[in-house]
Amino acid sequence: MQTLSHPYSSALSSLNNRSRSSFSRITGPARIAVKCGYGFESIYGFGSTRNDWQSSCAILTSKVDSLKSSHAAKENSEAGGADHVAAVNGHVSNVTNLNLVKVDKKQLQPKPLSISDLSPAPMHGSQLRVAYQGVPGAYSEAAAGKAYPESQAMPCDQFEVAFQAVELWIADRAVLPVENSLGGSIHRNYDLLLRHRLHIVGEVQLPVHHCLLALPGVRKEYLSRVISHPQALAQCEHTLTKLGLNVAREAVDDTAGAAEFVANNNLRDTAAIASARAAELYGLQVLADGVQDDPNNVTRFVMLAREPIIPRTDRPFKTSIVFAHDNKGTSVLFKVLSAFAFRNISLTKIESRPHRNRPIRVEDGESEGTAKHFEYMFYVDFEASMAEVRAQNALAEVQEFTSFLRVLGSYPMDMTPWCPSSCRRGGGGDD
C-alpha cells in the first residue's frame, strides 16, 4: 500500500534512511524536527523572521529592476547613432560605436526570486496538493475532496506522514479526522497537533455510510472473517449480528485498505467494511448497504496548512486552543472556563490529554505523605473568531491562569446542511 502518490514518494523515502522508526508499509521520518518559517511566540502573533523574509524579497525585486535598467542601457548604446552619448571609463563621449560585443540574452543569469515567485499555493482548492491518511477510497479522501474539490489528493499511510508532507512542502494541505460522533476523539491526531506547527484553517463534517464488501460471487454464508478499521467494526457490531454473520472481526489500518487487501489477495472467505467508492475502485460487490448501527454518525475532519488564515467576523468561526495549568490549585480549570462563560462564548469541545513532558506531578505533604497527580493538556474548541474582541479578552484572561497556551487555529465553521448517512452514499467516517 503506497502512502504517497508516485511523484512525491521519492522525497519522503530519502528521509527514511535517517529515521529510526518505520511504518508497516510506507515509512515516514518520525524524528525530524521541522519548524515553521516564522515564529509563534505570542497567542496569535508572529515572530520577526517573516518580516525579514519579506524585506529580503523586496531587496531581490529592486535588484531585478536595476538589472533590467542596465540591460536596457546596453541595448540603447549598441543601437546608438551619431548623436548618441556613451560613457567610457566614467567619461561622457560622443562615440557612435564602441565595438561592444553583443550579449546573448540566453546567456544572462537567471532572474532572482521575487515575492510572487515565493507566494503560497493558491487557495480554494485550485491545484492544491492535499494529504490524507489511507488509500484511495478512504473516507478521508472523500473529506479532502469536499474541502478542496479541485485538489490533487495524496494518500499517506500514517497520520504523521501527512503532517510531515505539509511541513516539508510536499503537500500544501492535510485533511485529517479528529473526532467521531460515536467513537469519540482520534487522540493520535490531537497529540500530533501539539507536536507539529501546522495551523487549522477549516473543518469538514461528513456522515458515515458503511458497506459490507466481498469478491464478486461470494455469498454471506461463506464468510468467516470481516476486516476493517477498529471504529468501523465497532460501529457495525449490531448490524453484523442481525445479518446472521458468525464471523471473526479483525482490525486493520483503514477501511479502504481492508477492501484493497481483500481484492489483492483474492480472499473469498473475507469481507471488508468500507465505502461504496472503495467497492468500485477495487472491483468488489456490495453484500449489504448501510451496515452502520446508527445513521446519525458523523466524523469531523480538520484542514491543516503551514500558515494560519486571517480571522473574520462576517461568518461563523471556530477557534481551537490547547493549554496547561500552572499547578496553582484545582480551581484553575473552572477559572479558565469562566473566562468564556462570562463573555457568552459557547464551548463545543473540551478534551484532556496527558502532558508528555511532565506526566506526573509529585507533592510532599508534612503529614499526608507523598501525593502523585497526573498532569494534563486541555484542548478546547469555542465558537468565536480571533478577530472578535471578546475572544481576545477571553484568551488574555486564560493566559493569566495557565503556564502554556497556544492557538491551533481560528477558522470558518462547516455550515453545510447535514443529513443522516441513510440519505447519502460514500460519506465520511473514520479511517
TrEMBL record:
It is found in: Plastid, Chloroplast stroma. Its EC number is 4.2.1.91. One of its GO terms (biological process) is L-phenylalanine biosynthetic process. It holds the Pfam family PDT. Its main location: plastid. Pathway: Amino-acid biosynthesis; L-phenylalanine biosynthesis; L-phenylalanine from L-arogenate: step 1/1. It catalyses: L-arogenate + H(+) = L-phenylalanine + CO2 + H2O. CDD domains: ACT_CM-PDT, PBP2_Ct-PDT_like. One of its GO terms (molecular function) is prephenate dehydratase activity. Residues 321-412 form the ACT domain. One of its GO terms (cellular component) is chloroplast stroma. Keywords: Amino-acid biosynthesis, Aromatic amino acid biosynthesis, Chloroplast, Lyase, Phenylalanine biosynthesis, Plastid, Transit peptide. InterPro entries: ACT-like_dom_sf, ACT_dom, Preph_deHydtase, Preph_deHydtase_CS. Residues 129-306 form the Prephenate dehydratase domain. The keyword Cell membrane does not apply. NCBIfam families: PRK11898.1 (NF008865). Converts the prephenate produced from the shikimate-chorismate pathway into phenylalanine. This is Arogenate dehydratase.
